[in-house]
Amino acid sequence: MPGGRGVRREALFGDGDSWFSPEDVYLFREGRHVKLYDKLGAHPVRSPEGIGVHFAVWAPNARSVSVIGDFNGWRKDAHPLRVREDGSGLWMGVVPEIGPGALYKYHIVSSVAGYEVEKADPFAFRAEEPPRTASVVCDFPYSWGDGAWMRSRGRKIGLSAPVSIYEMHAGSWRRVPEQGGRWLSYRELAAVLPAYVADMGFTHVEFMPLTEHPFYGSWGYQTTGYFAPTARFGTPEDLMYLIDALHREGIGVILDWVPSHFPTDLHGLGLFDGTHLFEHADPRRGYHPEWHSSIFNYGRHEVRSILVSSALFWLERFHIDGLRVDGVASMLYRDYARPAGEWVPNSHGGRENEEAIRFLQDLNEAVYRHYPDVQTMAEESTAWPQVSRPVYMGGLGFGYKWNMGWMHDTLDYMEREPIYRRYHQGQLTFSLWYAFQENFVLPLSHDEVVYGKGSLIGKMPGDDWQKFANLRLLLGYMFCHPGKKLLFMGAEIAQWREWSHEGSLDWHLLDHAPHRGIQQLVRDLNRLYREEPALHAADPDPDGFRWADSGDWEQSVISFYRFAGPGGDPVLVICNFTPVPRHNYRLGVMREGTWKEILNTDASVYGGSGQGNLGGLETVPVGAHGQLQSLNLVLPPLALVAFQAPPVRGG
């Protein structure tokens, strides 16, 4: 059996304790070690005398830890690890004559009487495909070909860049009906996804969590493997191949990452060494009532080190361009989803989770210190201040924040019958009161098309023609409103069904002209958004936006300008939220000359009625809205029209 030659492991591979330097241990215990993936877990090692794997795991309350696996018949007495004598709780050792591909777990006997368990490796880089739960020894032989992308990616996700994100679930984007409806592998996705996303004009793909998770129906949000991509779609190298293919097509990759909670599966992090090591012991702080999962103890230094290391691992090893951090609101408040009396106030008697705040700040500082050309994005659904402001200013340090307020108000407005919209104009205008307090992403995400909420087009009122027109108007409004864009897969083809993770998108809908029209509109919106600086360059700057008229509530019309910066040529946007065409609609404008129509969501090519302004309009010297010049417009029904301003005369 392996190791049976009678040669001491230390003679082959050196003293296991030297794997962790005193500085490593100090930083780990201080919560400031951000690259623990180089130290913990299973690492293939070589010496002139042979090969082996170095194992290291944190289990401070264990009485004994051993490596069990297919290489030793899963015997708990075959390969015991040794605990360091410095009180760090780190167990380590080398198993000779094994390498990548070996299956293993840790057998842990706790100092808590009677607790004995087999655990997957929290730092495993690869796992068995669920429902199997063993870890797999892995190295990273992949040779990347995305050097050009990596050198330029920072300016493609920055605050002044056009960032348009295609959010997707890898297991249900497209399936193979001829083979029982199975999902595509990472490499099969690499053959079709980059070209599709590029053709649609999106700048980035955001994957719902690809970290290993035992229950497919959790969509990845119940993570057990914080350093392992799910094996459902292939190996770690296969995922690298997919990311590489996207990068070479000019598409960035954002990963949904979940440090807010973890599942209670026996092989996972819960009660790891017989004690509440990763989670709080008090269920009022350690149990998540909404998701029936465990909550990390962010006050524990080692836990912070592990979580920050996970974030940097994906950025370093997998060339991820951004992290969307899930459930930030649930982390910030101790009373999140808890009734009175079932939560523990902080030391000042408040509801703020001070340890989680510090963790999020540490996380963002570490990310931007090591990878200044990526972005972090917070899914934060409350009015917590300065989410996307630097830590040194008292902020949480994220690069972007999802604008959940805009999403809720806009969808609530769009779901109303147009006859009632006149009474709710404030739902459209309110977002501009706070649009520049954060660096926002406007999300029409998966959360809006599940759990009985229906699809985006299913939410729209009216007959089928009006539903498609409302959806075109909604999409146009999102792309013209300040903020980066995010659209969940299926919305670009106007899928009727609510999203289901168990099947493919309904691609057959593209056999029908109205659905092709929506897809073409999304293509053109992405193209216009990328090519027109006024629609993206000054997103976080209040000088990049100005109302033309926000007060025409009686006709449910709003109009506004977007600017690329001081002195730049504006884009004028007018939205008609009723099915009534508005002929001879007079709007005062800031410049004299010909305003070129650059977008009309009612165009025939999109499935609209084809009403519009014949490509452009000349101003007339009739005053309106405080301006000396005005346009006499046709506002198509349930449509958005946008115009490029004439150059300044004599400029």
SSE blueprint:
Elements lengths: L8 H5 L8 H9 L10 E7 L2 E9 L3 E8 L12 E2 L6 E7 L6 E8 L5 E4 L15 E2 L10 H6 L11 E5 L6 E2 L5 E2 L2 H15 L3 E4 L3 E2 L12 E5 L6 H13 L3 E6 L25 H4 E2 L4 E2 L6 H17 L4 E4 L2 H5 L21 H17 L4 E4 L21 E3 L1 H11 L3 H4 L4 H4 L1 H4 L5 E5 L11 H4 L4 H17 L3 E5 L24 H19 L13 E8 L4 E6 L8 E6 L5 E8 L4 E7 L15 E3 L10 E7 L3 E6 L7
Parallel strand pairs: 9-12, 9-22, 12-15, 15-18, 18-19, 19-20, 20-21, 21-22
Antiparallel strand pairs: 1-2, 2-5, 3-6, 4-5, 6-7, 6-8, 10-11, 13-14, 16-17, 23-24, 24-25, 25-30, 26-29, 27-28, 27-30
Helix pairs in contact: 2-7, 4-5, 7-9, 15-16
Radius of gyration using CA atoms only: 28 Å
Poorly predicted residue ranges: 1-12
Q: Give the C-level CATH assignment of the largest domain.
A: Alpha Beta
Using the coordinates shown, work out and report the CATH topology of the largest domain.
TIM Barrel
* Sequence of strands across the biggest β-sheet: 9-12-15-18-19-20-21-22
Helix tally equals 16
Domain module tally: 3
**Which percent range describes the beta-strand content?**
15-25%
End-to-end gap:
84 Å
Nearest-integer average pLDDT? 95
Using the 3D structure, state the CATH architecture of the largest domain. Answer: Alpha-Beta Barrel
Overall shape: it is elongated
- Which class do the helix and strand fractions yield? alpha/beta
How many individual β-strands? 30
